[in-house]
Design a protein that fits this description.
Spore Coat Polysaccharide Biosynthesis Protein SpsA, Chain A, 7-stranded mixed sheet, alpha/beta
Length: 255
């Protein structure tokens, strides 16, 4: 089976080569890597031009979800993964992915995704519980996109991704998929989530993320307790982000 990897990108030239190399550092030979760049103004295009094996475009789009929809349409593999342009795969894990999909009952698989702290190089282990529909409603922050792979015939049922969702298109997809069948879970690391100051999932966008999550929770008829826990968790995230930001401003001032 062939694996297609889709990477949405915008102004991540500092990291995208690491992402590309992580796809190349696999034992699986039949892999295509599709990068949909939103018209980056940094060094991204120069990096992409260095790799003739890539399928890529750099043009203005309507955001990450639109880029993903465009990239998935180009996929020719039976197995699809998507990884953001600042994250990266563990070495030699595609063989494990393909072996899992040799079982025709398996429709999607998920491995572990430790956090990689860009400033220090520290790696924090992933303690994500099993992904089920109810677990996602109890805590949507267990979602780990980079280490997830989908059988294309199964993914096609749920496409296109909802382009009205800027932060939670993956949660929307996972909720709909997990109602049909849970993924096969692996305890070994498949990918790393980079923690860096300019990432999309920072504290400034937590409010928008919460709004989108509540829309999905209402659609799924989540309980009052589930919605309450979600609001409390996001409020704590915003509070921590603001405290950290003020500490950093103070440090910059005293130095």
């Amino acid at each position: 089976m062939k694996i297609s990897i889709v990477t949405p990108s915008y102004n991540q030239g500092k990291y995208i080569e690491n992402t590309i190399q992580s796809v190349l550092n696999q034992e699986c030979l039949d892999v295509e890597h599709i990068i949909m760049d939103g018209g980056s103004t940094d060094q991204t295009v120069e990096v992409l031009k260095k790799y003739p094996h890539l399928i890529w475009a750099s043009e203005k789009d309507r955001g990450q979800t639109h880029a993903l929809n465009k990239g998935i349409k180009l996929c020719s593999g039976e197995i699809i993964g998507w990884i953001n342009s600042d994250d990266f795969y563990e070495k030699n894990i595609f063989g494990t992915v393909l072996e899992a999909f040799s079982d025709p009952s398996v429709q999607w698989v998920i491995g572990k995704q430790p956090q990689f702290f860009d400033e220090t190089g520290e790696i924090k282990p992933d303690t994500t519980p099993g992904i089920t529909y109810h677990n996602l409603l109890d805590n949507p922050d267990i979602l780990r996109q980079a280490p997830a792979f989908f059988r294309k015939s199964f993914l096609d049922i749920f496409l296109p991704l909802d382009e009205s969702l800027y932060m939670t298109m993956d949660l929307d997809l996972w909720l709909r998929m997990s109602k049909v069948t849970p993924p096969k879970m692996f305890g070994n690391t498949f990918a790393y989530f980079r923690i860096q100051k300019d990432q999309k999932t920072n504290g400034e966008l937590t409010g928008k993320q919460l709004q989108e999550m509540l829309v999905l929770f209402r659609r799924e008829k989540a309980t009052f307790l589930q919605k309450s826990r979600l609001v409390i968790r996001k409020a704590i995230c915003v509070f921590k982000y603001k405290i950290k930001k003020r500490i950093n401003i103070f440090r910059a001032f005293i130095h």
